[in-house]
Amino acid sequence: METHAELGAFLRSRRALLRPEDAGLPAYGRSRRRVPGLRREELAQLAGVSAGYYTRLEQGQSPNASDSVLDAVARVLRLDDDERAHLYSLARPRPKTPRREAEPERVRPGVRNMIRSFADVPALVLGRFGDILDWNRAAHALLAGHLDIGSPDRPGDRPNIARLVFLDPRTRELYGASDGGWARKARATVADLRLIAGRFPDDPGLTGLVGELTAASVEFAELWAAHSVGDCGTGTRTYHHPKAGTMTLMVEFMALPNDEGQRVAVYGAEPGSASEAALLRLLAT
Asked: Whole-prediction pTM value?
């Protein structure tokens, strides 16, 4: 994933979502516009830069774009906080370092002890690119009881959230293939992976994961091409578990500041709710 190409594709995808009238420009009829959304010249005018400068920015030829220019482009494109952060990551990529043999990600003993102390609360550790580095018994039972509980301890066998969502039929059913739950999870997963890609643009592990999923899943390929970005973050999700039935759980994500890119996810039900009862039934099996 070349950063300059990603920057151009991202900006074009955001331009395509805006109509001229949305940006306060006169609309002269769609039949006269050969492409959807704003033209480069129109965006440049609204952002207060020359058309040539914006073109160079979109082509990745302006590595020293100022904060004011990037902020103006973000304002015109109506980028949210995650999209703005993604724009900055692509416009100002970190200097490339010599590649070396990547070591498998590891979970610090203190983090491992923490998530396993939760007992009846599902908790897991996610690596930079969505690999499950460790989970407690409750998280394994909730999300992937059909997999070996010890698989996160073997780097070559670690489950990956994106692979599970797009390539594992049981995961598709868990999130609700028939009621739209899986589609929402799929969009959020790809948007999160896009955001991560902006932070690690030249990582061969991420490039390999994206290539694998693009080849294996038409749905992933279509979502990846849309260039949506967003942090999956905290939220409420419904799970259709084959053993415990349907339950709605709150998910909290916490970044581990001492472990670049790693996050802890913790799942909980509303106290006294039917979902809490379903979760307890699952853990009792």
From this structure: 0.82
Token representation of residue 258: 């001492």
180-225, pLDDT tens digit by residue? 899 999 999 999 999 998 888 778 899 999 999 999 999 999 999 9
For domain 109-284, the CATH architecture is 2-Layer Sandwich (3.30)
Q: What are phi and psi of 238, to 5 degrees?
A: -105, 135
Helix (H) or strand (E) holding 55: helix 51-58
- Residue 88, exposed/middle/buried by CB under 10 A (0-12, 13-18, 19+)? middle
CATH class for the domain made up of 3-91: mainly alpha
CA distance 91 to 69: 11
CB contact at 8 A, 249 and 267: yes
Name the residue ranges covered by the structural domains of the chain: 3-91, 109-284
Measured distance CA(69)–CA(84) in Å, rounded: 12
Taking the C-alpha atoms of residue 5 and residue 1, their distance in angstroms, rounded to an integer, is 8
Structure tokens at 172: 């598709």
Structure tokens at 167: 């390539």
